[in-house]
Structure formats: C-alpha cells, structure tokens
Amino acid sequence: xxxxxxxEERALLEGTWPLELLEDPIRQPxxxxxxxxxxxxxxxxxxxxDFIVLPNGVDLLGxxxxxxxxxxxxxxxxxxxxxxxxxxxxxKDSEMLGRYKAPSGILSSAERTHRPGEAGVEYVDHKGEQxxxxxxxxxxxxxxxxxxxxxxxxxxxxxxxxxIAEMRLLEAAIHPINREKVKTVCKRDVKDVVGHLASWTFYxxxxxxxxxxxxxxxxxxxxxxxxxxxxxxxxxxxYKLVAAWPKGAVSNRICREFDDQLFSPPLSDAKxxxxxxxxxxxxxxxxxxxxxxGGTAHTALCISRGMGLSAYESIVTLHPLHSGLCxxxxxxxxxxxxxxxxxxxxxxxxxxEASDQLQEAAQQFLQGGPQIDVTSTSKEAQKLKAFEPxxxxxxxxxxxxxxxxxxxxxxxxxxxxxxxxxxxSRYMRSQIDCTVKRAHRMLTSGRARFASVSPKRSRSRSRxxxxxxxxxxxxx
Length: 476
What we know:
Elements (H helix, E strand, L loop, with lengths): L6 H7 L5 H4 L7 E2 L3 H10 L6 E4 L2 H4 L4 H4 L2 H8 L4 H9 L2 H4 L2 E2 L19 E4 L5 E3 L8 H13 L9 E7 L3 E2 L6 E2 L7 H5 L8 E12 L4 E5 L6 E8 L2 E5 L4 H9 L11 H7 L4 E5 L4 E5 L4 E5 L5 E9 L3 H7 L17 H23 L12 H5 L7 H12 L1 H21 L1 H6 L2 H11 L10 H10 L1 H8 L3
Parallel strand pairs: 1-2
Antiparallel strand pairs: 2-14, 3-6, 4-5, 4-6, 6-9, 7-8, 9-16, 10-15, 11-14, 11-16, 12-13, 12-15
C-alpha cells in the first residue's frame, strides 16, 4: 500500500524517525479496512513479523473512548497537555490516587520483577536510559508521582520523557460486561466485541490490561514481552511511531544492544541503523486499532503535540505458529528465549488458563460451536443478562460465523494447537483433559461433521470409531 501522510502528519514526523523508513512499502503495516477483516486476522491470520492496523477501528468496533474509558481519566486528560501536568493534577486528586495504580516498571533485564507487562511512571535519565521510580512500591502511586516530579525538579529526569504505562485499578472490580473481577481500567474491549468466540483462542487476558499515557518525546523502550504473546492495541488519542523487529536472532540482538532504550530524537547512528533492520515501522493515528506480536523486539514513541492514550489486550491465538511461540516462553533452548522471561512457575499459571480456554472451546465444539453460542444457556449467561451487546457486535459475530472458511480454520488451528500441547509441552500435556482430546480426535480423524449432534450421540459414534481414534492418537 502506498504511503500517504497529511501535511499535519509530516510536520509531526519531522525530526523524529527517517521518513524513508516510514514510506518504505516493505516496512509499512498491513492495513485492513473493515472490522470483520481485522477480527478475521486476529483469530486465524498469521501476524508474526507483521503489524496489522484498522484505521478508525475504535468506532468500527464500537470501542469509542467515552464508552471504553472511565470519565475521570478522560476529564484529567482533557484538562492537561503533558504527563507532567497530569501527574501534578493527580497529586491533588485523592479519589483517583485511591482508585488507580501504575505498577512496577519495565526495568533492565537484570532488574525485572518478572511480572507480565508491568510498567509504571517512567522517565529517561541523563544517560538516555528509560527508568521507573520506586519499582518495588507497586501500589504506591502517590509516592511514585512525588518521586518522579522531584527528579524532574532536580534535573535528573527529562520532563518530556515522562510516561505512564500499565495503569490499572488499585483493587480488582467487577467488569460491567462479563462480570469477572478485573483490574483493567477499560470498560469494554475487543474481547467483548467477539463474545463467546473469545474462547477460540489459546489465551486472552483482560484482567491485567494496561493503559498507556504519554506526550511528545515519551514512549516505550525496546523490549520483548515477558510472555511471547501478541497484543491488540486501541489508540484513542495521539500519534505514535512503532517499530517491530524480525523474530529470533535479530530481535534478540536488538534487545541486548538497546534494552529498554527509547528511540527518541535525535537518533544516534546506532539507533538509526537498528531501525533499518526493523521488519515494520509505522505511524499509528488517533482511532487506530492494531495487532502485532509482543514476542519480538518492539518500541513506541509518542509524537503528538497533545496527550496520547492507548491500551493493550494480551492474546495468544490458536494459530500454531503463535501458540507454539508462546509455549517457548521459558524454553532456554529456543532461539526466541531471552533473559528476563517470565519464571516457570508464573508461566505455568498462564498455561493453566490456556488449558481452561481449550476446554471451553472443546465443549463448544462438541455442542455445535462455534457457530452455536452454547454459553447463552449456561449459568454464566445469567450473570450477563444485564448487558445487551450492541447490534454492531452481534452483526460482526454473525458475519464471522457465516464464513465457513473462518470456522474451518478456527477448528484446524484448535486441532494443531492441541497437538503441540500434547507433543511439545510436558505441563500442557498434563493439563489437557478428555474433553479436549475428544474434540481433537474428532477433528483430526475427519469427523468434525458430527460437531452439531448431541454429546451423547457423539460418544456412541466415538466408540464405533475405535480404529480411527487409534490412528488420530498417532498424530497427537
């Protein structure tokens, strides 16, 4: 797709990153134009090394900021023009200080606390390195604000580099849509848009979803996520430059050489050369929704004259390339492994949730899903009666499920991911239950046409299909 920047955008880009990289067709993001196309890519597409953007996606998906974000956060943003001003405003707002937190920051690989996606009130020091304040005081937002403003006053922190990352609720609260206890600030997400289809992923986290706030010159230094998952981002306000590097050796080297360094102008020769190795270099605009792998080195730089506001959901799709990459998170023999990855015991918690997710998808499949929303008659559905999904969301779900190729790919990817779990992950092999194995056998033995019959009848046919079942086990 040919690159096009307005005069306003060119003015914002001036003096930031090399324009020729942003205009290079090879490095440009893959742009989709409809919400259905975007969701298709999220569920069954392959995006490793790619960056997928849906312009005006927050409106096309029914995720406008006034519907998705708390009013007090939006009012605070409307009344300030920089992160420094926002922090000074928060200092005086005891109600907001008692409601929100910005947890421990992205630290150097030697300092990381090993919690997924943690960040906080960050700044760039006189050496050009991105730091966080009071990293061990995760719940002490007032103290962190006081400390970073003190550093700015003393000239030890660059005021323009201040960045609020992974802002969440201080205490878990009931989500207004699915009634789960969560710490996300957001009131609705892409996960809500797709409804029961969210079960047809390996992992989809909304509990710890973080909100990011920055101004021109701030952003996120180079890093690989501590779990090799992907991210669905919503960019409500501001312009942001992003870069993502190819997986494996290049990504690892970039992380070693530029660990947590912000690519702010003026770029050094080394950083300019590193950007030329990026697989994708893109400009994100207000309203964009986007999708990319956090399992490769990536960085972001805010270039707006005003405030930027975005949030990310962590997701692992059933595409075997992505579920397989996720399962390599703690595998030291993998070329994608990096120092600072999540510890084994914490990653097992992620995998336990993934096994629950597979079980939900398998139960849906055995009862006629995903075309039939079997959750609508469950006890869980009773909790959701108070929320009626917008017609837009109903229509998007119906469009996806009417696409036979989409459903077939979902089921194929489910079977491939289960096979990976059974052959490549000792922990997942111990977690996969008989329901998942049964769905897997039906899919790999070509009996998926029986998905719509009753579970009792399926079991009867399964007994008569012993030879086919034995053959499918050899593929698990």
